[in-house]
Amino acid sequence: MEKNTYDKSIMRTGSCNNRNKSIDIAKGLLILCVVIGHGTQNQSLSDFMYRFHMPLFLILSGCFLKKVEDVGTYAKMKATRLLTPYLIYMAIDFLFFDHLHNFSRIIHYLYGGRFINGVYWYITSLYIALVVAVILLNKLNKKQLMVIGIVGGGTAIIESNIIGSISLLKRPGIPFDADVSLLVLSYLIVGYILKDRIVDLFQRQSLKLDVIAIGVIGLLILEHLLMEKYGVSRQIDMKLVVYKNPISVYIIPTLYGFVIARLSAFIERNCGRLSLCLEYVGSVTIPIMFLHEPLNRFCPMSNYLLIYLLIGMGIPVVFSIAVSRFEYCKYFGIPKRKIAKRYRC
Q1: CB-based burial of residue 213 (10 Å sphere; 0-12 exposed, 13-18 middle, 19+ buried)?
Q2: pTM given for the model
Q3: Which end of the chain, N or C, is less surrounded by CB atoms within 10 Å?
Q4: What residue ranges do the domains of the chain occupy?
Q5: Contact 202, 19 (CB under 8 A)
Q6: Mean pLDDT in each 10-residue stretch from start to end of the chain (345 residues)?
């Protein structure tokens, strides 16, 4: 996902550094959930992962939104961090992993969104939403932003419920999945408005909160199993505009987010090597996001989840470590590291 503004200040203060570690750990856990959701042959497990990982990525991105003096400069900076890797990985995918090298495939790639395989939709819809968000931050207060978030999210849910009756809206859909930006924007606003409480969940040492988190995950697993038993739709698939109601769109991901935040804080305090591994994985989510599916596309053993994970996460992580010492690493969505061995697991 995108490299947030807090990366720049990662070594400036102790408190900021601690906060960033736990949030990168959370991102590491979430990207693991993304890869599991794509790689598992178990539909129930896939649905489980799809319930929260993308919404939480976006809410965390919203935590680090801030007002900017020049929206144009911000848009260019985000284009470098998001759209440049988007184009590079798309070219790699097309040249090396796509067996259909013809004009129609080129059109598909240029159209983007749900018209092509992979997670390209995420980057374009996120970029659009981020630029819109900073424009709104400079003009509106938090109450007004809340209204925009509710309207945007509500409109997105309405679209999800009518998309089946509008064939062109379903496929090829809006170019770059720009319509999904409505829901993305609402998640960014949630993160922005609640950022103090969210950061506190990552930082506070509280046995009471940890016990509550254990209880919440138990209830969520039970709810998931009951929904599965009675055939109730519970998956969120933002790429395909599958987000039918506000409970599955906001409440369920928020509860999972509470659990992920407490788990990340626990891992940071108590699991040294695991903490370092997840922290690094969480800082290189873009190459993992783009490469895990193409790398496994033609692997005959990728039906096995463990093999899928080793290929889909292992190769991008090794690639990131190798490239992170060079200035051009930013074009691959990889932060520059002066001392890569700090992250060795």
Answers
A1: buried
A2: 0.89
A3: C
A4: 5-343
A5: yes
A6: 38 39 96 96 89 96 94 96 95 82 80 87 97 96 97 96 84 90 98 96 94 96 88 82 93 97 96 94 96 89 93 97 94 79 54
